[in-house]
Design goal:
Elements lengths: L6 E5 L4 H12 L3 E6 L6 H9 L4 E5 L5 H14 L3 E6 L14 H29 L2 E6 L11 H21 L4 E8 L5 H9 L4 H10 L9 H11 L11 E4 L6
Parallel strand pairs: 1-2, 1-4, 2-3, 4-5, 5-6, 6-7
């Protein structure tokens, strides 16, 4: 690691949006910790980064577990350097209508999204304060505005927005910004699973979604990666506490 190279941690980075963000930050010149629940699942992302000339480390961790987070951050610091960029992307869905939703499915979604973002942010903020520079990017969703069958996910993603704004207030004086990206329909394994759950062909599902989006297409993980790249950059130092809807059109 060069002395001026920054280190980023991207959670949920084995696939989908997280993998795209990790690859983009590596292309931007950051050393990237590719963190996911299953360390082996991170291999493809790490190999893609190193093949392109970047530096990456696969890290297995449960973001909802305090000891796991502490161990992961210690390892990243030792092997890549002090993390000053954090992308809280790890997430799960446990969709169901309210009256059919088990409390375990509510708790699981809250644990990964909100508890995970809290534990990860708390674990790295000291490095950011010490460096006088930090970037925290939290993944919200258009579902934060409400979405049928996702009372847990919608609540978690709305919570991410309040969490983000509070981080911005608390950490700004230390040179640390906090922002949220709220994706719309992004073509990932998660949206493919949603289509399967409702019994729809994925191509038809995407076509129906695209018809409702002003730019007339669904999003790709790289669309989110571009936005994360900007928010993690030096040039975004006066942007903080914002929720950016990357959804192909305006959201309320």
């Amino acid at each position: 690691m060069t002395n001026n190279q920054r280190t980023a941690i991207v959670t949920g980075a084995a696939r989908g949006i997280g993998a795209a963000v990790a690859k983009r930050l590596a292309a931007d010149g950051l050393a990237v910790a590719v963190l996911d629940l299953d360390e082996a699942a991170c291999t493809a992302t790490v190999e893609a980064i190193t093949a392109a000339g970047g530096q990456a480390l696969a890290v297995g961790a449960d973001v909802s577990d305090e000891a796991s987070v502490s161990a992961a951050v210690e390892r990243v610091t030792a092997e890549l350097g002090s993390p000053t960029v954090l992308i809280n992307n790890a997430g799960i869905t446990r969709d169901n209508l309210l009256f059919k939703m088990p409390v375990e499915d509510w708790d699981a979604v809250m644990a990964v999204h909100l508890r995970g973002a809290f534990l990860m942010s708390r674990a790295v903020q000291g490095f950011m304060r010490e460096a006088g520079f930090g970037r925290i990017v939290n993944l919200s969703s258009t579902s934060a505005l409400g979405n049928r069958g996702q009372v847990n996910y919608a609540a978690a993603k709305a919570g991410m927005q309040g969490f983000t704004k509070t981080l911005a207030f608390e950490l700004g004086k230390f040179g640390v910004t906090a922002n949220a990206i709220a994706p719309g329909f992004i073509e990932t394994e998660m949206t493919a699973a949603t289509a399967e759950r409702v019994g729809a062909d994925f191509d038809d599902f995407k076509a129906m979604a695209a018809a409702q989006i002003p730019v007339n297409r669904v999003g790709q993980p790289d669309d989110i990666a571009h936005t994360a790249s900007f928010l993690a950059s030096e040039g975004a130092g006066f942007v903080s506490g914002q929720v950016i809807y990357v959804a192909g059109g305006p959201k309320d």
